[in-house]
Amino acid sequence: MNHHLDTNRANWDDRASVHAARETGRGYDVQRYIDDPELLSDVVRFDRERLGDISGLRVVHLQCHIGTDTLSLARLGARVTGLDFSPVALAEARALVDDARTPGIAPIDFVESDVDAAPTALEPASFDLVYTGIGALCWLPHIDDWANVVATLLKPGGRLFVREGHPILWSMDETESDDLHLRFPYFEQAEPLEWDDANSYVETDRPLTATKTYEWNHGIGEVVTALLDAGLVLTMLVEHDSVPWEALPGQMVARPGGEFALDARAGVAPLSYTIQAVKPGV
């Protein structure tokens, strides 16, 4: 058994339950997607122009969680498969898609698997687009393994598209509100950082009960090099001064579209990035 994986899965099973709450509008406020059949998630909408036309493409959304980004990609016309290691998250994702009932979208498949096993759970070299939303890569211990999985899943000519929290942000201590404090490793480490926290990154109806997690940071250079070593060609790398949650409480200001940027230290550090890479071929 993989202790780190099992512990993180328990945490994400717990998060899925509170993130998908509908009655109060907390968590991910999923009722919005049911009430508005054209609504896109803030994460997908942020990169809409960079993502381009994905209508008709076969897409896999790795680490899809409760499916709000997955549904959004389908609403843009893609044929989407969502993959996640949490059975609770996948049950919530299926319920959201069923209840949202968006006219004209292709059926969405959901597959239970961790990322490393994705080439076994899915058909290799069968996807036009591998998509990963924000806050996903920090749960993976080896960025090289992830890049090889991506390359295996893509068709020749297919592309990877990721928006992620910047490793500079992951290096900061969010508990210090007087200034920016670099506390944690920027580069990938063999051993993870261990956390024990009953709170999530969005407001929830109750504290978490599975509170322990393990995380790994991956520097920008490590991500880029892993993709190049996997045979992909980098076609985009954009750093952003905002992130879609209040990552540093007391030091950020809200922007439209669910984004948060630094206040007194505006522009001092990148907070997120978008990266795209293509598998050579047709």
From TrEMBL:
InterPro entries: Methyltransf_12, SAM-dependent_MTases_sf
Single GO BP term: methylation
Entries under Pfam families matching the protein: Methyltransf_12
Protein's UniProt keywords contain Transferase: yes
Residue ranges annotated for the Methyltransferase type domain, each copy included: 61-160
Keyword Zinc annotated: no
GO molecular function: methyltransferase activity
Keywords for the protein's UniProt record, in alphabetical order: Methyltransferase, Transferase
UniProt cross-references to PANTHER family, sorted A to Z: METHYLTRANSFERASE, METHYLTRANSFERASE DOMAIN-CONTAINING PROTEIN
Protein name as it appears in the record: Class I SAM-dependent methyltransferase
Organism this protein belongs to: Herbiconiux aconitum
Record lineage: Bacteria, Bacillati, Actinomycetota, Actinomycetes, Micrococcales
